[in-house]
Amino acid sequence: MFLFGHKQSKNPKPQKEKSGKEYEQMGRELEALYWSVHPNRGTFYRAAFLKGVLSGVGGVIGATVVIALLLWLLSLFDSVPLIGGFVDTIKHTIEGGSPTQ
How much of the chain is in helix, strand and coil states, percent to nearest 5? Predict the structure, then answer.
C-alpha cells in the first residue's frame, strides 16, 4: 500500500534503544537549531508579542465584518421569522422611539 508516495513495509525495522549520550547529543543539536532560528531572546519575545496583538486585532476586525454583513443581510428582509419581534424592539430602541408604539 502506498501512503503519500512511500511504500509501507509490513514489518518495520526495530530500532535500537538510544543511550543517554545519544539523547544528550540530540538535545544539544535541537537547542542549536532553535537558537539558529531565534538568535536573540528579545527579538523572539517581541515577535511573539506582536503576533499575539495582531491575531487579537484580526479576530476583532473579522468578527466585526461578519456581524456587519449578517446585519446587512437581515436588513434586506421586511420581517425576520422567529426573531422578528426581538429585532423590531431593537430597531425601535435604536431609532429613539419606545418599543411599544
Answer: 65, 5, 30
In degrees rounded to 5, what are phi and psi of residue 7? Answer: -80, 130
Residue 30 domain-assigned (yes or no): yes
> Domain containing 74: what range?
22-95
Euclidean distance between CA atoms 98 and 89, whole angstroms: 8
> How many domains does the chain divide into?
1
Residue 100 lies in a domain: no
Question: Rounded to two decimals, what is the model's pTM?
Answer: 0.45
Distance CA(64)–CA(58), nearest Å, equals 10
Rounded Cα–Cα distance for residues 89 and 36 (Å): 60
Considering the domain boundaries, does residue 77 fall inside one? yes
Q: What is the pLDDT of residues 1-38, one digit of tens each?
A: 455 666 666 666 677 777 888 889 999 999 888 878 77
Instruction: Decide if 41 is inside a domain.
Output: yes
Query: Which residues are CB-contacts of 88 (< 8 A; sequence separation ≥ 6)?
Result: 99
